[in-house]
């Protein structure tokens, strides 16, 4: 206990010491609460605290006549301990209960130890899970549930475990089976719709590039948009193949599907980053920009860089079958993806990579919005005087820069279910949004398309040159 904090009396640590005879004829009952700590059961008001039930089997297996039972209640919020890396679940009342009997470790009990955690009505979208702290998990330790059975109730949850250690009740954000199936159905249907409109958008881009004469800057923009939409099409196709074949695919085929899906996802993120870089060059560095074979070099980065990442991930064996399941081990779906043993690869290459791209693109979006508003205020851009068109251009840029993907960071916690629906729906409609944005913004209805991005860029260049 001294190693937990450095001195004997620590705020948030409450301990009960009991000397129990080996010849005990009844089970030992102890009460605990986050505020009062552990105590004998008859001194605690009924219903206000949790309970610990120690079976007689524990004491009969010990060699000494008298053993010391140590029950410790810790407030981990005050200690800053027992926090797993990338932990998304909440610890009930920030309370961890440690139980020690004698000097040796006790495990493999036929009659389990029972801990009853008292609580009010739990929030929607969370599932209670009985866990214990395993110092050998990962680099800093983590929570495990093996050997423990969870029996949830309205006002209390009973944890039955076959060993003694530090226990707690985790509140995991989890989708129930029906909600998960509904989200998967929406995602599957949305992928089909997104693929159809991606084809329409690519055909429209090719048509207007061949039919109308645009300046070089706009032609580069169209080529950039064409590659982004193409990567979205491939991602949706890879997802449909993955969800359709992963449950019965050969392990080597599953690894290939996982790598393909990961590659398409990274391509989307990379092209979103290149869209942000292009907007930065056009609206911030508006003069003196000439890069030979510019679009070809962008394609080399957009399609080539993900190959390196996927290659490294494949060499270390990151790909395989990934099972999505609820806390009670109900299988929701089988996918070919980054395996559970290599989730760090997912956090770095997907979450971390997109997080950096999102921050950069939103900064660029802010600059572009500020410049567009300043031009509109001077009356230079006549085509943007209609409020609906201003909103449409902003929404199109928002989708183009991948802002809807940022909702994935909000799918953790008690609000995960509505965020899952919103994330799935908006990204399914992303192809439709981009198609409508392209048609209205780029299709020339008059001789001078003063509502297009090319006009803003030309005017911004002229204004900057005149000021210099």
TrEMBL record:
Top-level lineage group: Eukaryota
Kindly list the places in or outside the cell where this protein is found, as annotated in its UniProt entry: Cell membrane
Any one GO molecular function term: G protein-coupled receptor activity
Q: What is this protein called?
A: AGRG3 protein
Please state every residue range assigned to the domain named GAIN-B: 30-177
Look up and give the organism this protein is from.
Answer: Alaudala cheleensis (Asian short-toed lark)
InterPro entries (UniProt xref): GAIN_B, GAIN_dom_sf, GPCR_2-like_7TM, GPCR_2_secretin-like, GPR1/GPR3/GPR5, GPS
Give the classification, highest ranks: Eukaryota, Metazoa, Chordata, Craniata, Vertebrata
Ranges annotated as spanning the membrane: 182-208, 220-240, 260-283, 295-316, 347-369, 390-414, 420-443
Q: Which UniProt keywords apply?
A: Cell membrane, Disulfide bond, G-protein coupled receptor, Glycoprotein, Membrane, Receptor, Signal, Transducer, Transmembrane, Transmembrane helix
Q: How does it sit in the membrane?
A: Multi-pass membrane protein
Q: Name one GO biological process term.
A: adenylate cyclase-activating G protein-coupled receptor signaling pathway
């Amino acid at each position: 206990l001294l190693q937990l904090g450095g001195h004997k009396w620590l705020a948030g640590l409450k301990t009960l010491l009991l000397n129990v005879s080996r010849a005990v004829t009844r089970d030992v009952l102890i009460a605990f609460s986050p505020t009062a700590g552990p105590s004998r059961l008859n001194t605690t008001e009924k219903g206000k605290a949790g309970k610990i039930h120690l079976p007689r089997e524990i004491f009969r297996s010990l060699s000494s006549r008298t053993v010391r039972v140590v029950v410790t209640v810790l407030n981990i919020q005050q200690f800053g301990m027992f926090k797993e890396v990338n932990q998304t679940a909440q610890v009930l009342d920030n309370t961890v209960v440690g139980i020690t009997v004698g000097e040796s470790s006790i495990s493999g009990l036929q009659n389990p130890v029972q801990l009853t955690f008292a609580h009010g009505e739990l929030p929607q979208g969370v599932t209670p899970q009985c866990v214990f702290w395993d110092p050998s998990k990962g680099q800093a330790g983590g929570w495990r549930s093996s050997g423990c059975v969870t029996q949830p109730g309205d006002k209390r949850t009973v944890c039955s475990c076959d060993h003694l250690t530090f226990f707690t009740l985790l509140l995991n954000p989890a989708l129930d089976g029906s909600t998960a199936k509904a989200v998967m159905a929406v995602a599957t249907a949305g992928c089909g719709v997104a693929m159809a409109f991606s084809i329409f958008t690519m055909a429209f881009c090719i048509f207007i590039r061949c039919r109308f004469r645009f300046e070089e800057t706009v032609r580069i923009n169209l080529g950039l948009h064409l590659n982004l939409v193409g990567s979205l099409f491939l991602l949706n196709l890879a997802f449909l193949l993955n969800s359709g074949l992963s449950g019965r695919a050969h392990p080597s085929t599953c690894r290939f599907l996982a790598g393909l899906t990961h590659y398409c996802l990274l391509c989307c993120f990379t092209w979103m980053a290149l869209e942000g870089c292009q907007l930065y060059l056009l609206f911030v560095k508006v003069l003196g920009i000439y890069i030979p074979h510019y679009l070809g070099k962008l394609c080399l980065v957009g399609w080539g860089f993900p190959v390196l990442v996927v290659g490294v991930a494949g060499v270390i064996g990151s790909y395989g079958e990934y099972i999505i399941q609820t806390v009670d081990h109900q299988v929701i779906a089988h996918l070919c993806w980054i395996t559970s043993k290599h989730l760090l690869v997912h956090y770095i290459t997907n979450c971390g990579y997109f997080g950096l791209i999102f921050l950069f693109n939103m900064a660029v979006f802010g600059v572009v919005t500020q410049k567009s508003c300043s031009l509109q205020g001077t009356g230079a851009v006549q085509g943007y005087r209609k409020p609906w068109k201003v909103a449409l251009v902003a929404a199109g840029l928002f989708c183009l820069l991948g802002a809807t993907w940022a909702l994935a960071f909000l799918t953790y916690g008690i609000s995960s279910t509505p965020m899952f629906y919103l994330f799935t729906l908006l990204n399914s409609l992303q192809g439709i949004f981009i198609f409508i944005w392209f048609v209205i913004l780029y299709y020339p209805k008059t001789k001078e398309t003063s509502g297009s991005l090319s006009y803003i860029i030309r005017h911004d260049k002229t204004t900057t040159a005149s000021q210099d």
